[in-house]
Design a protein that fits this description.
Blueprint: H1 21-26, E1 28-34, H2 38-49, E2 54-57, E3 71-72, H3 74-82, H4 88-91, E4 95-104, E5 107-118, H5 121-134, E6 138-140, E7 144-147, E8 158-164, E9 167-178, E10 192-194, E11 200-206, E12 217-222, E13 226-232, E14 238-244, H6 246-252, H7 255-265, H8 273-276, E15 280-284, E16 287-289, E17 293-294, E18 297-299, H9 314-334, H10 340-352, H11 356-364, H12 368-380, H13 386-393
Parallel strand pairs: 1-2, 1-9, 2-6, 4-12, 9-18
Antiparallel strand pairs: 3-5, 4-5, 7-8, 8-9, 10-16, 11-14, 11-15, 12-13, 13-14, 17-18
Helix pairs in contact: 2-5, 2-9, 3-9, 9-10
The chain binds flavin-adenine dinucleotide (FAD).
Length: 399
């Protein structure tokens, strides 16, 4: 399938493998992180910085496109600052965000949105992987991992099966981190649960878009089929990321028509590239695995549970879960304790909180009527949005 972001991705973003499949299989790693999105790359970097041998594996080559609104809120920027990567977004040309234009059911409001930036995921994720490599992690892209059978003479490692092209090898990690994103393929299927009637994500990047979509402002159009977010990236392209009801998607005949419908419904100009695609989709967005740990394995990031993306917190959750996990991961590398799964479940819950705001927003967005009422309310009293924006940007305290 064509890559929705490929046309303008500079070759300079390429992150080369630091070792080959055979070498990855020869060594016993302290940690193997599966998935080089923000959760896996951040955890890999932190653990490498702590002196552990880390293998970071991803099925894609980098840079790679990811369906995402590409908006980094204040929490993301604080989390990066806390791990010494505070300059990353600005140096990469991230566009400072100052506003959110929200439209639904004939109403529209522009809210002040301080403390965020837009940066394309090809660039952001590639830079995080590069930072992990600079910290000492080894990187094996274009390699799909699946769990092997627990083994070793003393059960002292967790085996993985790695597939690269036509080659297959086994790799051994004292600890495996499953940071493999939405859909969580590394976990046994039965353990990953998608909420009934969950919306489905879809996205693409458009090379040319009307000036209406000004840089620095997130545009959010809410309609009957779902909602569509549009934001200018650092290179002027327009990132389009949407969440649709599966039924509406089927009825309308795909994401291009659904997005066109939603944008036209609120009276905004439809970018020409929308119909041509290529669109990329996601599995059901609201999901939660039954457990987020197994022997010598911790799950983090989207793979550990996700709620619809309207409030744009996924990357913050990914980085937060990676940071929360690292002290426990360091202990687990030394010696696995059967108490660790319960400990990680509790730590994860505490680090991310109940995500009530996101669940409530997801529920509200199911009703175009209620969304319209909210937008009208905010248009009359924009100050009401202040506490919500502050809550989304607040960074959880870490030692
Ligand atoms: C429509 C939409 C809009 C969004 N907008 C925003 C936003 O504006 N701001 C925000 O903060 N968040 C947003 N999000 C959420 C955000 O994209 C995710 O929360 C974030 O990417 C999670 O990071 P992660 O590292 O857990 O997973 P991912 O970024 O998904 O990374 C997982 C990685 O694992 C790899 N992988 C998967 N399986 C395997 C395997 N078996 N072997 C090897 N590698 C594997 C994949 O290739 C991928 O690189 C949005 C999400 C959607 C769907």
């Amino acid at each position: 399938m064509a890559d929705p972001g490929a046309s303008a991705t500079p070759a300079s973003l390429r992150v080369a493998p630091t070792l080959g499949l055979a070498e990855a299989a020869r060594r016993v790693w302290d940690v193997i992180a599966v998935g080089a999105g923000p959760a896996g790359a951040c955890a890999a970097r932190e653990l490498a910085r702590a002196g552990r041998s880390v293998l970071l594996v991803d099925k894609s080559s980098f840079p790679r496109y990811k369906v995402c609104g590409s908006c980094l809120n204040g929490r993301v920027l604080s989390a990066l600052e806390a791990v010494g990567l505070g300059a990353l977004v600005e140096e990469a040309g991230g566009v400072v965000l100052d506003g959110l234009r929200l439209a639904a059911a004939g109403a529209e409001v522009v809210l002040t949105l301080p403390g965020g930036a837009a940066l394309g995921r090809e660039r952001f994720d590639a830079l995080l992987v590069r930072a992990a490599v600079q910290a000492g992690a080894e990187f094996l892209p274009s390699t799909r991992a699946r769990l092997g059978v627990l083994g070793g003479p003393t059960g002292s490692f967790r085996p993985l099966v790695l597939h690269q092209g036509g080659d297959t090898e086994s790799a051994r990690g004292r600890l495996v981190l499953a940071a493999d994103g939405l859909g969580a393929g590394l976990l046994p299927r039965a353990l990953a649960m998608t909420a009934p009637a969950s919306r489905i994500g879809a996205g693409l990047i458009v090379d040319e878009a009307p000036g209406f979509y000004r840089a620095g402002c997130i545009h959010m159009a809410c309609g009957r089929a779902g909602y569509v977010g549009l934001v200018r990236l650092e290179d002027g392209r327009l990132d389009v990321a949407a969440a649709f009801d599966p039924g509406a998607l089927r009825h309308l005949g795909g994401p291009a028509r659904a997005a066109t419908g939603v944008i036209a419904e609120v009276g905004w100009p439809v970018p020409a590239g929308l119909a041509a695609g290529p669109w990329r989709g996601t599995p059901g967005l609201t999901s939660r695995p039954e457990c987020i740990s197994a022997e010598r394995l911790f799950v983090l990031g989207d793979a550990a549970g996700y709620v619809e993306p309207f409030t744009g917190e996924g990357i913050a959750w990914a980085l937060t879960s990676a940071r929360a996990l690292c002290p426990l991961a360091l202990r687990a590398v030394e010696c696995w304790d059967p108490a660790f799964p319960a400990l990680w479940a509790a730590l994860h819950r505490r680090a991310l909180g109940p995500r009530r705001l996101c669940h409530a927003t997801a529920r509200l967005l199911r009703s175009p009527l209620l969304t319209g009422v909210l937008v009208r309310l905010l248009a009359n009293a924009p100050a009401l949005a202040g506490p919500i924006v502050q809550a989304l940007n607040r960074h959880p305290a870490f030692p």
